[in-house]
Amino acid sequence: MISSQKSNRIIFILSLLGLLVAAYLFYEYNITGPIFCPTGQGCDIVRASTYSSFLGISTPLLGIFFYLVMAILSVIHSHDLPKRLARKMQVLVGVSGVAFGIYLTYLEAFVIGAFCFWCVLSFIISVLILLAIVLVGRKKHDNGN
């Protein structure tokens, strides 16, 4: 288990890392030419699929929004007044992000038939953020708080 303060720092750092990954993907989605993909051509295949946007919004733009919200919530959580509300929002946004990541990874595996390295990395970061949130929740519960 980790302390709430340490968890919040981890969430903030991971959010910034995720923001960089999502911003890079957003940039790559909006230029012509192949995406630099360490694992081959999966990133270009995913970008060319109909699933590269959701409700008309570029998937990397949704990632930017997700990580920006998580970073802002971690800053808010570091202050005393809205701490409880910020933690509840972190849980809600974190679960939503991981659920969307599961959906997108499912699409990569079973519909598109290709994996984007950067998309999978973003999914892993979102899972780590949720894990940091959940570990604090368990510690507080175990201590009776």
UniProtKB/TrEMBL annotation:
<dbReference type="InterPro" id="IPR012932">
    <property type="entry name" value="VKOR"/>
</dbReference>
<feature type="domain" description="Vitamin K epoxide reductase">
    <location>
        <begin position="4"/>
        <end position="138"/>
    </location>
</feature>
<feature type="transmembrane region" description="Helical">
    <location>
        <begin position="112"/>
        <end position="136"/>
    </location>
</feature>
<keyword id="KW-1133">Transmembrane helix</keyword>
<comment type="similarity">
    <text>Belongs to the VKOR family.</text>
</comment>
<dbReference type="GO" id="GO:0048038">
    <property type="term" value="F:quinone binding"/>
</dbReference>
<feature type="transmembrane region" description="Helical">
    <location>
        <begin position="89"/>
        <end position="106"/>
    </location>
</feature>
<keyword id="KW-0560">Oxidoreductase</keyword>
<dbReference type="GO" id="GO:0016491">
    <property type="term" value="F:oxidoreductase activity"/>
</dbReference>
<keyword id="KW-1015">Disulfide bond</keyword>
<dbReference type="InterPro" id="IPR044698">
    <property type="entry name" value="VKOR/LTO1"/>
</dbReference>
<keyword id="KW-0472">Membrane</keyword>
<dbReference type="GO" id="GO:0016020">
    <property type="term" value="C:membrane"/>
</dbReference>
<protein>
    <recommendedName>
        <fullName>Vitamin K epoxide reductase domain-containing protein</fullName>
    </recommendedName>
</protein>
<dbReference type="Pfam" id="PF07884">
    <property type="entry name" value="VKOR"/>
</dbReference>
<dbReference type="InterPro" id="IPR038354">
    <property type="entry name" value="VKOR_sf"/>
</dbReference>
<feature type="transmembrane region" description="Helical">
    <location>
        <begin position="54"/>
        <end position="77"/>
    </location>
</feature>
<keyword id="KW-0676">Redox-active center</keyword>
<keyword id="KW-0874">Quinone</keyword>
<feature type="transmembrane region" description="Helical">
    <location>
        <begin position="9"/>
        <end position="27"/>
    </location>
</feature>
<keyword id="KW-0812">Transmembrane</keyword>
